[in-house]
Task: inverse folding
């Protein structure tokens, strides 16, 4: 039988495509690790019973274990840390090294306090606000610890990948009068149509299409291996695009990033909303300017960086919030920082401004612990 | 059913398999049934609206044909029934809320204590498309251009045929009914061509349109007062690309899905952003709608008798036909205002339509100048001018309201607004990249591929690699994140 040449072409293309996905992306790389590269590793803290106290995504896999740890802890005071990849990353990690969250939890072990943390790569303040509002329904929070990174204030919006449970539960922020809450809720709603709902939530599907699509996705997730690699392929593709852009425009880790005014102000609005909520709910807030490499010049315009620090300090001090502020930007010496996999396609590695070595985690843990003891 | 979903892919495999396996007499019933399922996956209850429109035209068309041409009154009355039912449905579902809202606003301005109740009803998917198809069918019968279809099965399928049901291309009865009557035997070429078009379409939708969409949404959510002129241009280009990829993706998938069953649906796009004038643009953009508007609105309004029916070529081809300058200008502006209004019940769409009409009018008026200066002989100059202004027309189309539209237009007129930018650098970069890719794709398609196709093995390898990449992206990015933009029209 003569096979149509164009059909043969397509058959071969299907075969090659699925082979590439199956064999090229089968590694179980976590989404959080994709952008970190090989020099930095993610580490999520555990308590002394080896139970998870630190997560990145609020999904069906991580959240139940996390809540279980909280229920088992039996401690009356909970310190909730929110952060970005600095919190869950250790540069040049060695065996048995842990991050500053775990060090603080170990230090607080004898007191009545326990530590819980969610850290999301490049988390902007809108995401941190959402996280807080979600966790406060599940955990009795006494103190909230929040690092404010200049880079993250250039970010915007909610990324569904870190909040699948919120999307499945159709979680929305109740107070919808504020602009920033409307924006976050709109963002959350936009993900509803693509959410894979658990069986007990299927009634949220409005059309037959949504129900069938949901069931098919569940089936494919459970039974087709390469279907599960899709996220990995997508992540790799975007990392490659990002590196390509940096290569073409000569952008490196030390290239100066500018403040984006609109995003900055939206994130500041989110911070104010968060602080007001905490004030109403009697939650103490500790905000710190996180460590950054100080042995080389900063990748920011100094006046913009100082503006950020001053703005936050003034918000904390002047508005009657139960808020504490500390500037930790140069507490970690240069030798405790390392390199990271290059963010362009030409170099092998470049300076890492964000993630430090274990020794740096010890110093940061010590600094935060001292303040927490003071805040009580 | 949404094309960019697993549900549709599985549905299509089942339907196409059944279509080629079933005996001839059952094929059409199966297709009609499948088309109803396709539509019912969104809302079953709205199938009834579609059938009201279809049944009205089925019977009135037969009645019109049976009425002697000399009985003009009766023929016109029958035509009026069709228009009343179809336009009535459109007005009820699509425009009633807009009308009541505007009447209330006007009475408030005039200080009259009068408020109509607001009718906000769910817009049935595809209503703007299938009502236009049924209207054109009856008008064509009225004009004597086609015969009324006696088989309700064939006629029902003409209206409901699922690949083009929800967002076109708007099919003429003469083009589809013929194909339904004389169905070809199975050819592997149908499958190859169909699959390729579907893959192209899915790639454009899930890889390009859906990834541009968050950038556009984010940009149009910004306060328009804070934007720079560079931002406004970028937003116009970004949305221009999004809507083009999104809508042409739908058309590719529709054409491909029909092709799998050996049915040909006319092309709807032909590199519209490479047009060298607005008239040219309308020969390349949403060709089936602009051809429809030409035959059933513009030419009648301009007093020209329509003697043939075709969903090809677009309105651009009809623009030169009328001789009377006055009727030509009136028809032009009225047609485009209606065209804009067809897209949505909002004044922003009317502005969009009038914007296009103004540029076509200007092109007519400036024709002598265009001929006098040699610079306009270079396609690149006319292309660039057309591209810039065609892209800018997307601002009223996408803006949230009239006020925002005018603020954004003001921004681009003030030179000081060109001195800063407020969005993330990536947005500008992506826009430039998309423009570059579009030009390269056109060049490859038009000049390189025909030459490559002569070198058998090289062409085979090239296309295999191309489809491998497309399949990887489609498989990886296939998520029903968003509906197609034209679903809302």
Result:
């Amino acid at each position: 039988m003569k096979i149509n040449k164009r059909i043969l072409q397509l058959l071969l293309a299907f075969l090659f495509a699925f082979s590439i996905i199956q064999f090229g992306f089968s590694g179980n790389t976590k989404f959080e690790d994709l952008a970190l590269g090989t020099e930095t590793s993610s580490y999520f803290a555990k308590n002394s019973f080896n139970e998870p106290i630190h997560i990145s995504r609020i999904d069906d896999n991580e959240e139940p274990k996390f809540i279980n740890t909280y229920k088992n802890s039996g401690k009356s005071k909970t310190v909730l840390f929110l952060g970005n990849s600095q919190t869950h990353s250790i540069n040049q990690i060695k065996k048995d090294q842990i991050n500053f969250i775990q060090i603080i939890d170990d230090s607080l072990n004898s007191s009545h306090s326990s530590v819980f943390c969610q850290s999301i790569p490049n988390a902007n303040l809108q995401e941190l606000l959402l996280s807080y509002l979600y966790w406060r329904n599940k955990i009795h929070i006494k103190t909230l610890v929040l690092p404010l990174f200049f880079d993250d204030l250039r970010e915007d919006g909610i990324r569904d990948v870190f909040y699948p449970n919120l999307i499945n539960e159709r979680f929305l922020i109740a107070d919808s009068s504020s602009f920033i809450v409307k924006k976050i809720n709109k963002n959350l709603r936009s993900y509803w149509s693509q959410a894979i709902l658990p069986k007990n939530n299927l009634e949220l599907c409005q059309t037959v299409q949504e129900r069938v699509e949901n069931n098919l996705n569940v089936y494919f997730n459970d039974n087709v291996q390469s279907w599960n690699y899709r996220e990995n392929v997508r992540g790799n593709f975007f990392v490659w695009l990002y590196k390509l852009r940096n290569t073409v425009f000569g952008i490196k880790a030390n290239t100066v990033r500018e403040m984006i005014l609109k995003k900055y102000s939206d994130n500041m609005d989110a911070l104010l909303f968060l602080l007001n909520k905490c004030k109403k709910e009697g939650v103490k807030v500790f905000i710190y300017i996180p460590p950054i490499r100080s042995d080389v010049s900063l990748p920011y315009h100094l006046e913009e960086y100082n503006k950020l620090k001053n703005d936050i300090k003034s918000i904390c001090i002047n508005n009657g919030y139960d808020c504490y502020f500390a500037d930790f930007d140069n507490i970690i010496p240069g030798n405790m920082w390392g390199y990271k996999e290059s963010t362009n396609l030409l170099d092998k590695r470049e300076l890492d401004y964000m993630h430090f070595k274990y020794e740096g985690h010890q110093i940061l843990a010590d600094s935060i612990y001292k303040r927490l003891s003071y805040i009580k | 059913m949404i094309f960019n979903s697993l549900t549709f892919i599985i549905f299509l495999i089942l339907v196409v398999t059944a279509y080629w396996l079933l005996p001839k007499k059952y094929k059409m019933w199966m297709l009609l049934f499948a088309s109803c399922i396709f539509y019912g996956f969104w809302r079953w209850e709205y199938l009834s609206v579609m059938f009201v429109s279809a049944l009205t035209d089925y019977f009135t068309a037969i009645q019109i044909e049976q009425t002697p041409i000399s009985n003009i009154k009766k023929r016109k009355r029958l035509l009026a029934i069709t228009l009343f039912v179809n336009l009535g449905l459109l007005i009820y579902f699509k425009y009633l809320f807009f009308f009541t809202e505007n009447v209330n606003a006007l009475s408030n301005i005039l200080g009259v204590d009068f408020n109509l109740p607001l009718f906000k009803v769910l817009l049935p998917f595809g209503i703007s498309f299938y009502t236009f198809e049924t209207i054109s069918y009856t008008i064509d019968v009225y004009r004597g251009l086609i015969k009324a279809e006696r088989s309700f099965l064939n006629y029902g399928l003409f209206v409901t045929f699922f690949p083009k049901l929800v967002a076109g291309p708007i099919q003429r009865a003469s083009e589809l009914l013929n194909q339904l009557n004389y169905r070809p035997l199975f050819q592997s070429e149908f499958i190859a061509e169909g699959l390729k078009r579907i893959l192209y379409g899915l790639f454009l939708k899930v890889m390009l349109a859906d990834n541009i969409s968050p950038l556009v949404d984010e940009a149009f959510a910004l306060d328009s007062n804070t934007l720079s002129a560079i931002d406004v241009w970028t937003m116009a280009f970004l949305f221009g690309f999004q809507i083009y990829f999104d809508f042409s993706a739908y058309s590719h998938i529709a054409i491909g899905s029909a092709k799998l069953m050996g049915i040909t649906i006319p092309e709807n796009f032909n590199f519209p952003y490479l047009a060298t004038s607005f008239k040219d643009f309308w020969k390349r953009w949403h060709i089936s709608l602009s051809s429809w508007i030409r035959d059933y609105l513009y030419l009648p309004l301009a007093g020209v008798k329509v003697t043939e029916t075709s969903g090809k070529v677009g309105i651009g081809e009809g623009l030169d036909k009328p001789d009377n300058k006055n009727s030509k200008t009136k028809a032009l502006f009225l047609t485009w205002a209606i065209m804009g209004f067809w897209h949505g019940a909002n004044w922003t769409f009317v502005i969009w339509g009038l914007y296009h009409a103004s540029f076509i009018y200007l092109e007519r008026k400036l024709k002598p100048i265009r001929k006098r200066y040699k610079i306009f002989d270079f396609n690149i100059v006319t292309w660039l001018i057309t591209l810039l202004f065609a892209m800018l027309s997307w601002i009223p189309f996408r803006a949230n309201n009239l006020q925002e539209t005018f603020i954004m237009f003001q921004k681009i007129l003030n030179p000081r607004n060109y001195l800063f930018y407020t969005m993330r650098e990536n947005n500008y970069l992506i826009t430039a990249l998309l423009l570059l890719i579009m030009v390269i794709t056109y060049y490859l398609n038009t000049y390189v591929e025909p030459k490559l196709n002569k070198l058998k093995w090289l062409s085979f390898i090239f296309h295999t690699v191309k489809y491998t990449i497309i399949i990887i992206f489609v498989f990886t990015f296939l998520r029903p994140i968003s509906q197609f933009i034209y679903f809302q029209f």
About this structure: The two ends of chain B are 16 Å apart (CA to CA). Chain B touches chain A through 48 residues (CB under 8 Å). Chain B has a mean pLDDT of 87. Residues 163 and 258 of chain B are 6 Å apart (CA to CA).
